[in-house]
Amino acid sequence: MEVQLAPVRAWDDFFPGSDRFARPDFKDISKWNNRVVSNLLYYQTNYLIVAAAVVSIVGFLSPLNMLIGGAVVVLVFMGFVWVSHNKDILRRLKKQYPTTFVVVIMLSSYFLISYLGDVMVFMFGITLPLLLMFVHASLRLRNIKNKLENKMEGIGLKKTPMGIILDALEQQEDSINKLADYISKVKE
């Protein structure tokens, strides 16, 4: 299936008034995770634009360190994904504790970058965009269009870059489970 870039969502939908934002239910981690995954899929192009702006500014100020930092994070991410696919215990940990998995990747990247170069480039050029995405995805309430788009991604009708990353982190449910849930909701 061909990878498609999701459309840019309207900026007034992406960052509307406070009525569309709410604190997640910290007691129900599964529900919070679903909100984050749904928003990451739905607003992925908006997140990409925001991240590109931050990376461009930091990259302009320190291009070599930004290139090194980006390469280190990508290599560490790919290494952790490869190891977790080949070790069953790590796969289960990654599926149960996705945030911990991402934090381990970021901490490993941080230590490698501190050894190789400028830590501030890592903090502002790599961590800040990820933090902004996570905070927005955690706080933004989902809407009907958001849920429909995510169902289409989940059952395999379309494939997007964020969907590929979430698949690597094993944060996409099995397509059959999503299709069954969707059909049961449509029947109601």
Description:
The protein is mainly α. The chain has a domain at 29-143. Helices cover 75% and strands 0% of the residues. The chain has helices at residues 11-14, 29-42, 44-61, 63-86, 88-96, 98-116, 119-139, 144-154, 161-168, 175-187. The two termini are 31 Å apart. Mean pLDDT is 75; it is low at 173-180. It is found in: Cell membrane; Cytoplasm, Cytoskeleton; Endoplasmic reticulum membrane; Membrane.
Let me know the average pLDDT: 75
Q: Are there runs of 5+ residues with pLDDT below 50, and where?
A: 173-180
- Secondary structure: helix percent: over 70%
Cα Rg? 17 Å
Distance between the termini: 31 Å
Shape annotation? globular
Determine the number of helices (DSSP H or I, runs of at least 4 residues). 10
Q: Class by helix and strand content?
A: mainly alpha
Series of H and E elements: HHHHHHHHHH
Number of strands: 0
- Report the sheet with the most strands, covering strand number, pairing sense and barrel closure: none
Q: Tell me what portion of residues adopts beta-strand conformation.
A: under 5%
InterPro entries: Prenylated_rab_accept_PRA1 (IPR004895)
Family: Belongs to the PRA1 family.
Subcellular location: Cell membrane; Cytoplasm, Cytoskeleton; Endoplasmic reticulum membrane; Membrane
Transmembrane segments: 40-61, 67-85, 97-113, 119-139
